[in-house]
Design a protein that fits this description.
The complex is a heterodimer of chains A (471) and B (334).
Chain A (H helix, E strand, L loop, with lengths): L5 H15 L5 H17 L6 H20 L3 H38 L17 H16 L9 H9 L12 H4 L11 H34 L7 H32 L17 H5 L4 H15 L6 H19 L3 H23 L7 H23 L3 H11 L11 H20 L5 H7 L2 H18 L12
Chain B lengths: L2 H25 L8 H10 L8 E4 L2 H5 L3 H8 L4 E2 L8 H10 L5 E5 L2 H4 L6 H16 L2 H16 L5 H4 L1 H6 L19 E3 L5 E3 L1 H5 L1 H16 L9 H17 L3 E6 L4 H5 L7 H11 L2 E4 L4 H4 L11 H17 L6
Parallel strand pairs in B: 1-2, 1-3, 3-6, 6-7
Antiparallel strand pairs in B: 4-5
Helix pairs in contact in B: 2-7, 4-17, 5-7, 5-13, 13-15
The chains are: A mainly alpha (471), B alpha/beta (334).
Chain lengths: 471, 334
Amino acid sequence: MLFNTLGFILFFIVILILYYAPLLGWKGKKIMLLIASYLFYGLWNPPLILLLWISTLVDWTAGNKLYKLSDKSKKRLWLLLSICVNLGFLGFFKYGEFLLNNFIEFVNLFGLEYVPPEFDIILPMGISFYTFQTMSYTIDMYRNRIKPAKTFLDFALYVTFFPQLVAGPIVRSDELIPQYYEPKKASQNQFVLGLLLLSIGLFEKTVFADSLFAPVSDRVFGTDGNLPAVDAWAGVLAFSGQIFFDFAGYSLCAIGIALALGFKLPDNFRYPYGAIGFSDLWGRWHITLSSWLRDYLYIPLGGNRGTLSRTYVNLMLTMLLGGLWHGAGWTFIFWGLLHGLYLIIERFLKDKVSIKSSNILLNIFLAFLTFQCVNITWVFFRAQNFEMAINLLGSMFFINEGEPLLWTSSLVFVFGFMMLVFAGHYAMRNKSLVGVIESSPRWFVTIVWGIMIFGLFIVQTTGKQFIYFQF
Amino acid sequence: MKYTNLLFALLIGFILLVGYELYFRSIDNPRYDDNEDLWADQRRRLDDLDEDDVVVIGSSRAHQDINIHLWDSLTGRRPLQLALPGSPPYPILEDIVDNSQYNGLLIIGVAPGLFFMPANHPQSLEVYQKSVDYYNKQTYAQKLNHILYKPFDHKLAYVNNEDYSLRSLLESIQFGNRDSVRGPLEWPHMIDVDEYRNSSMTDQFEVDTVLQNMQKNIWSMFANGPQYNYDSTREEAIDQYVRKIKIFKDRGGKVVFIRPTVTGIYYENRNMIPREKYWDELLKRTESRGYHFLDHEEIKDFDPPEWSHFNKKERDLFTQFLVRKLQEDGLIKD
């Protein structure tokens, strides 16, 4: 089920009624939320709920064993089982075809004509998100960092909680499970703020991402030929805006829905296009994934505790895996590689050059430079293949010339709007959306909210999928 | 934040929406979106049909030139309308033959420029995605959304994804395009569809020559644009129909092709895909009957307002003609 549909609005209203009506006790409410979460997922493809159940059962059992056992080798085996099941599903459903295609190309190098059986497997929605979430539970249990969930119901609801099930934020167990222990009821402020955040998130997704940016980026990335630089840049900037508003919009919806039920989910975006440098960027873009990769990959690899060259290797490995997490394709891996290179160069320069951070103009310049470097990486993220990506980069940097493609109005919309996005993100670097809402006059917030609700009614992009569902 | 903020925001949104709806009501009527879900609704009915039923596939002419409700009143059976405007019918024929047990009468509209495209042509693949593939992959969530969306769709004028979605409205804002960049096509509002996908030319379009000329300009632009080399895939295109129709007939199905009347640029360009090499060959190799407008005095001189699709009167006459011919030829019961 998608947040940006009438079906979800009806679903959520029913949930709110059942949740706040004095019909169920706290346990009953949690059971209702769990059933609703399975329904939310199952309305897309019912059989794939089985994967969720298996993942839940395996990690619940492994978690309890890891907590009780003291024998290190046995603990390691249980951890291995949990990781194998989770990564096994992920590997099979998400990377199976990619691995098979690469295997075919590899054996073809030796002149072997291998023709595999047809491989047509559905990618379970949000599998990368819930897999990482459940893995963090067992890994933390192995490290004795957390205690197991008190009941199976609490754990199952942690794995399946519908607001963040299919596209995050990736929540750690110690952030969410303890919230299930006591009855939760949103205060008036939380409830209304939650619905406001939901409206903003939906507005970002349907108005900005789907209506304003997607048509332009789809046209540019759907073109085989070369383009003039202005069209190529507009297409890339449009995708930059589309993916931000799509994903940040989803995260805001998730946070808002949870808040309206009285639960707090972590922030996932903090104005990333205002970042100065790449470590700053990864503290602002998909924060829950970055921190997952930091805690469960980068630090275990050694982090920055070893030599400088070892740190560089760790950074690169982490970002390559980050790229692969996003998609089963070499272009995604290359996207990760570029970000790895950026982080390495930044770290190298930080050790050599001192940049004063109090100089506003310099900061704006560095933020703009960071933003443009990020835009270059989006080319590989969005392009179907390397040839298309290289062609587009050639067009962006005046190496290729081609026929104009975009309408003048599209160019004006995209360049104008993305300038505002950059300026807005830079201005909001040290602020939060909730902080700005709470410090603004109520009448002003209410009017803007009313206009947004109107926008949501008229947009008519019924049921366009969120980009990150495929990851 | 207080509940009053929420209530006032909803009120503001609602008031703006009422104004918006009133504006669109002043310029247009509420109507159904002929979208993937509506097509899927009809496709779902296919499995309930029997050998006395009729299914229509093809392009916009098969969609717009037959009145399925009139047909119902004449024969007691309402045809299932699965034709898709702007689309080659092969992907839908393939779906009916391979994925259903239907063995009634299949009426296949032939708009040569679309009909004779091979299955791997991008336009065929696009049809497949927005019809058959969507139907096969339609989730319960999408079905639920469609059920909820449908009452608003035909009761509110502004609910019209194709013409009045924010995206379409933004696209309509145009200024000073570069020389080689063509602006978006301005399709006039030509037809209304109902929940059975029965279509009717609007009263306004039937009399408004400005709208008709807008449509003619679009057809002329298509005709003057780059043309597909049909001869390069003629055998392949005909073969694909021959194969599927043989399977369909082997299980008791009947097939008839129709080529409704065209005028203007479509009539002048009819020899770009010569009848002898394509239409006649198709009938011969599929061993099927066909009704070509040039062969029948009753419909030969019809005059579609924009060269390509009938007004309501001619649509009904064509429907009556078709029913009569099919009854005479024993393809449907009297």
